Structures are given as C-alpha cells and as structure tokens.
Amino acid sequence: MEISKKFNKPRLLVIGCGDVGMRLLPLVREQYRVFALTSQRERFAELRAAGAVPLLADLDQPASLRRLAGLAQHIVHLAPPPGEGVQDRRTRNVTAILPDRAQVVYVSTTGVYGDLGGRMVDETQPVAPRNARALRRVDAERVLRAWASRAQGRLSILRVPGIYGAGRLPLKRLAQGTPALCPEDDVYTNHIHADDLARVVLAALRRGAANRIYHAVDDTELKMGDYFDMVADHFGLPRPPRLDRAALAQAVAPTLLSFMSESRRLTNRRLKEELQVRLQYPDVAAALRCIKRL
Fold it and tell me: In sequence order, what are the beta bridge partners of 222?
C-alpha cells in the first residue's frame, strides 16, 4: 500500500539541488515523488537520504538530458546560468525536456532590474540588466516565457536577492576587513533567508499563477554597509571601514564593486497576498537573533 501511494504521487523534478534545493527537499517529499538532477554521482547518497531519487545529468550536455524528457509535470529550476556570455544555454537545454502544460518554478535574480537609485518598485518594473550575470538571467526568463507560451506551461518566476542564513553570511569578508561604501554613497540591498526561500518555492508550487513574477524578498530595508555592520556587531567582528565610491573602486575587485553599484528596494506584496507566505525571518535582525554567535 505504501509503495502504491509513493508511485501515485505527482512527480517533481528539482534542477540545481544546492543549498536551497536541499532545504526544499524535506518540504516537498511527502507531497511529491521527487527527482533531483545532479552532475555529481558522489551526491547520490545525500540526495537519497533527503528523500529524492538522484538523476545523473549535466545541463551543459544536452544529450545527457534527453532521457529525462517528460519525466515530471512539476519542475523547480534552481540552476544558475553558465559563468560567461549573455545567454543561458542551460535553460535552453532544460526547455527541450519540458512536457507540454508542465508547471515550472524558476528562481531568477533581482539583479535583472539593474540600478534603480534606491527606488521602491513592484514586479511590473521593466528589467534593465547592467552586467553579464543579469543579462543571462533575463535571457533565461525570456526562454522560459517562450516555452510557456508555446507549450501552454504554467511558469512562475521568483526574483531573488541576496540569500543569507547560517553559513551564508559575510563573515570572511568582515574578518578580512574588506571596505564598504560610506553612507552617502551606499546602496539599498534586498535579502531573503535561505529557509524562507525554500518555503517560497513550495508556495509557488502550490499557488503560483501562470506567467507571474514574484519578488522573493523579506521586509528588510537596509543599505549594504548597515547590513555588514549588523552582522559584524552580532558576531563581535570589526565593522568594515567605509570609503567613498572612487576610493572603493581602487580597493576592491571589479566583480565585487559591481554588487555595490546597484541600489533598489522591492515590494513583497504578491509574495504575502498571492502566495500567502508568512516569513519565518521577516528581516535580517530577526534572523540574526536565531543564529548562534561564534
């Protein structure tokens, strides 16, 4: 009887089963028969222990994906794009195996908006990517929208900011004394706890509307330097030195500087009202109170 129930469950394919994916598995394994795609055979035992059926494939190798075509009607796409170029070839390869009328939850990035000068915006804000990372995400969103239109798919896009949590805090940066921007030059950043993001993905599977975008952000309204100061104070580390933008450009790598060059605040009304998510960690301060000090 138990075996019959197991195989009668709807199938869910999780693509990109890293930290957030591993947090998602315990939330979905009772409702779905879960398959987890990995390119590392050595992860099979870990994935089985978490309640998933591991599948070996490589998103950069389309031939390895062909046998998965039509495997599941529910798909969570957590895999990042390739590290170079302006197109997401991996997502193109994924759409080739998606069945018609499937449900897809795609985890994108809030970086698609570029710099908004600290303005508060909702999901109707046009995208304006400013770097290759964001361009690849915009490309992935467009590819998935084209699939959904062609195949009558149900696509929900979650635009995600900086993910944090125990083990995902800027402690190394703080210990190294990496500088931050001075208050007058600083940028607003958005946040989501990794556990809350896993719960948002589950809510999108349950209630996500077709062709709908959701901001997977918490209620935090902090500038980046204030975030670093808050984490430093919690762990008894020195606050980072503050520099103006010109001086900071000489002190940090261009990639790091790019993260400190975009300022935006994002509403989460759809997250709360449509997906009915109640955040376990509504802001960074609430989460830090639950994270053990060093």
Answer: 189
Residue 223 main-chain phi, psi, to 5 deg: -80, 160
Q: What is the number of structural domains in the chain?
A: 1
Is residue 14 over pLDDT 90?
yes
Alpha helices in the chain (DSSP H): 2-8, 19-28, 44-49, 62-65, 89-95, 132-151, 171-176, 194-207, 224-235, 245-251, 254-259, 269-273, 284-288
Beta pairing partners, 180:
242
> 214, 271 in Cβ contact below 8 A?
yes
Is residue 205 domain-resident?
Answer: yes
Please tell me the distance from the alpha carbon of residue 141 to that of residue 290, in angstroms, as a whole number.
34
Domain that holds residue 163: 2-167+192-221+267-284
- What's the pLDDT tens digit per position in 229-280? 999 999 999 999 999 999 999 999 988 898 899 999 999 999 999 999 999 9
| Within-domain flag for 292 | no
Would residue 51 count as lying in a domain? yes
* Domain assignment of residue 290, yes or no: no
CATH number at residue 147: 3.40.50.720
**Residues recorded for the chain:** 294
